[in-house]
Structure formats: C-alpha cells, structure tokens
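Work Package 3 (structural annotation) set out to generate three-dimensional models for the target panel prioritized at the project kickoff. During this period the team completed the workflow that converts sequence records into discrete structure tokens, so that structures can be stored uniformly alongside our sequence database. As a representative example, we reproduce one entry of 255 residues exactly as it appears in the project archive.
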Amino acid sequence: MNLSFPDYAQYFNSSDERLIVSFPPCGCKLTNKFIRTYLQRAFRVLAFPIAYRMLRLPGIAAIGFSEETPNAVERLDSLLDRRLVFVDGWCFRDPDNFKRYADDIRNFFLPKEGYIRMAQDIHSKIRQDADVVIGLHIRRGDYKYWEGGKYYFEHEVYVRIIKDIVSQFADKRVKVLITGDESPNLEPYADVSDKIVWPRKGIIVDLMGLSYCDYIISVPSTFPMWASFYGKVPLFIITDLQQPIDFKKASIVVS
C-alpha cells in the first residue's frame, strides 16, 4: 500500500480510480474523483497517528529507510515474523528481487492506453525520417540549486551535446527526442532545429517517449533512469562535461 502515490494513480491501469494504491492492485474502485481524493487525503493525514498507536499492539512493528543502508533487506527480513510491518522511507533497495520481478514491476506501471498511443504516434512520425532516435532529458528547474547547480546546464551546452550526438552517427539519419521539466524554448536550439523533436505532451508521454528511443542521455535523474529500465534502453549519464559522450558506456538500468 502506498499512500503517497494517488497523485500519479490516474496515469496507470493498475491504480486508476482505486481508493487505495497497492500491489497487487486493490479491487476497490471509486469513480467519484472528489470523494476519492478527499478520502485519500484523509488516509494520508491519519495514517501515521494510527500506525503509531498500533505499534503498541503485539506482533506489530515499524521500520524506516530515510537513508540508504547496505543491509536494508536483512533489516526488513528480521521483522517478517510479525503480523504487520509498517515501512516508511524511499531509500529501501533490494536489487536482487528488483531484477527478479522486473517484468512484474513494468506490468504494474503500464500506462493507460491513451498515453502509450500518443508516445507511439510521436515515435512513428520521428522514425519516418530517422535511423537512430536519441532521447535527451534536459533537467533544469530545481537543478539550479541541487548539488550547488553542478548539473544545471545552459541551453548552449545542450546544443553542443546534440551536435556531438549527431556527429557520432555520421552515416545515419539522427533525431533527438527532447524531454524536460521546463516549457520548450526553441530559440537557443535554432542551429539544431532540424535534428530535434520536443513534443512536451506531459510526464507520462515523455517517459514512454524516452523508453522507445535507441539511447537515452541525461544528467543524473530518476526520470530517464525509469525510462531506461522500463524500455530496456541504454542510458548514458552525464556527470562531467569534460568527458565525451561514449555510447559504448551506456547501459540499461536494471535495479
């Protein structure tokens, strides 16, 4: 059960209109959006106080993963003899089982048909004029301050990256599918306007669009990492502008 996921539930078949987002999917649907949203917000507010009081009961435990720990799986396993365990925090990592159940995870987060169709239509048009499609995720916004702005690049930098990408496929027709967290600003990209496509159709279409590419390039971000995992697409993460983009070093995110 994930009380923080309802904001995104509308995008996926497994969670849309469900009062409680859970895995496996809960069968309880509530089509009235106003009532459903009200109840979900109430659950979110009341969940922690209720859970805290329940911890006084025998056979109930809680565990938090606010920071990454090397023994996360062992910590959780040690509590599985309890009748009920509350888990909090997003830093839980279980790479072995993530790989084992990768296809189940992909199926659970299968977007609704309309989003898939929009992404497929975009790629169908792109591939009419392209042999290779590279996804480029431009993350700016909050990255101006995160890590001291280390991964916040001006548009001119991304133009150079696009030119570098195209030059590495000199004998191919290359198109770069751009996604990002800002509204498209095409003026700085005039020199490469014939090489880019920037559809901006929303986060789910952007995710699926990246997942249909041949390669993905991005600064460190979970957004392109998910697309790499979902579509099994090699991802090259830019950590140092002094280092050239090397597609041989791109890899599929598996955990």
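The chain has nine helices and seven strands.
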